[in-house]
Amino acid sequence: MVARSALALSFVALCCLTAVSLVAAAPPPLSICGVCGPDSIDGATGSGTLDIHVDETGDSRWVARVPVNNTAAETYRTNTTALETAVEDGWHRYDVAADDARDITPSIDPESQTVRVNYTVPGVASSAVGDGWVLDYFYAGDTSDRYDLVAERVSIHLPDGYAATNSPSGSAAEDGTLTWTRESAADEFATDEFSSRTYVTYGPAGVAGTLASWSGAAVTFGPLVTVHAARAGVVPVVVLGFAIGTTRRFGIGGNGRVGRFDARRSISARGYTAIETGCAALGLSPGRRTLSLLAFGAGAVLTVGTWVAFGFPNAVLVGSFVLAAATFLPLGHALERGDTAAVWAYSALAVLGPLAAATAFAPYGSSLSLLYVGVLLFLPWSLGAGLVGYVLSLIGRRVATE
User: Fold this and answer.
1) I need a labelling partner for 142 at 20 to 30 A (CA). Which of 75, 197, 239, 357 fits?
2) pLDDT tens across 302-343, in order?
3) How buried is residue 308: exposed, middle or buried, by Cβ count under 10 Å (0-12/13-18/19+)?
4) Dihedral angle of Cα 25, 27, 28, 29, to the nearest 10 degrees
5) How deeply is 130 buried, as exposed, middle or buried, from its count of CB atoms within 10 A (0-12, 13-18, 19+)?
6) Transmembrane region positions (predicted)?
7) 31: which DSSP letter?
8) b/e string for 376-389 if b means 16 or more Cβ within 10 A?
9) Residues 59 and 108: beta-carbon distance below 8 Å
10) What pLDDT does 124 receive?
């Protein structure tokens, strides 16, 4: 009892230390607009806006506009050096383009009292497949970087004749332009409006352009996602592998029959009754194909329902959990019948569950983030799937003996 308590406390302590380490190691957020914000350029009266114009070669021209007061506008109009100094001093230290900005040219529009800062950033987008393009300059999914929108509005303008083929989180698309806005201009910083996984796929209007851009995204992000998914999937795959081994070793008694222990006999009997009742209602005969149909059909309904009610991320977790656990039902049937080929097939299918979940959420940023996800998400996920799967395997075995 003492050993279990110590183990539980150690697990909680590990979770807390992991969470604290993640917060402590996180760098300051990067601003999207280098000179936007009321505390940037001296005399600024608002957050300003940023327009990013992408050309046909993947390079870009950034135009920041920041409103200033009367005094600042007059000073900058008559003193170019003061304007250049204000822009240089006001540039955010932690800015996404701080090291890449070229040809920085500030100017002042005295009528609108707006400071305009033009600068270029090369290579924000690339073409990996045909005419498909991927703007991945803001994609920081494999790091711990975060973004502050800072500006009231940030717009990315694609080249003429091109259209976005994905929907980046928080953006609104119209006529080749993607726009992000702050939810509340009263907030000094907005860290949720611009995701660190923001990327834009785009291509010529039409099916060919769409497919080319999607293929380009697969080429661009595929290797990174694969590596991170493999790392994150180690723990759940090992746990489910252990569960499968346990199912093969302890699913039956020494004489090859279910029911060596009362608990197993009770579980398998009740499960068989439920399966028999369900099959009778549907006019089906209990068998391995029927077990697969029932398990995966119920899982599909549950996954779709979760998607509608709670969103895609939760649906991925539920769907992959169901895939991993439900596979044990026909797996138990195959084990009891001694069908080696089917046993290997269902075992491989069960392992696809955690790999699907790990891939859907990849990449995971820093190594600490990966540890956090593995300990707090995928470890309990796989333990639950393995436990439920073992119970279902007993039911599958019972069906096979009747």
Assistant:
1) 239
2) 888 888 888 887 888 888 888 888 889 889 888 888 888 988
3) exposed
4) -120
5) middle
6) 229-247, 291-310, 316-335, 342-364, 370-392
7) E
8) ebbeebbbebbebb
9) no
10) 97
What distances in angstroms separate CA 398 from CA 7, 271, 290, 335, one per listed residue?
35, 8, 14, 11
**CB contact burial 209-229 (16+ within 10 A = b; e otherwise):** bbebbbbbbbebbeeebeebb
* pLDDT computed for residue 176 by the predictor: 92
Name the β-bridge partners of 135: 125, 200
Instruction: Compute, in degrees rounded to 10, the torsion defined by CA atoms 193, 197, 202, 208.
Output: -130
Domain extents in the chain: 30-220, 233-401
Give the pairing of strands 125-129 and 177-181. unpaired
The whole-angstrom separation of Cα 62 and Cα 310 is 37
Give the pLDDT of residue 2. 42
With a CB cutoff of 8 Å and minimum separation 6, the contacts of 397 are 251, 252, 258, 268, 332, 333, 335, 336
- Alpha-carbon gap, residue 317 to 312, rounded angstroms: 9
Which stretches does DSSP call E strand in 287-402?
Answer: none
Q: How many CB atoms lie within 10 A of CB 309?
A: 9
Taking phi first (over 0 means left), then psi (-120 to 50 degrees means alpha), and beta for anything else, what does residue 65 get? beta
Read off the tokens for 110.
Answer: 């005295």
- Tokens standing for 333? 């049937």
Residue 134, CB-side half-sphere exposure with 13 Å CA sphere: 21
Q: Residue 126 — pLDDT band, cuts 50, 70, 90? A: very high
> Would you say how long the chain is, in residues?
402
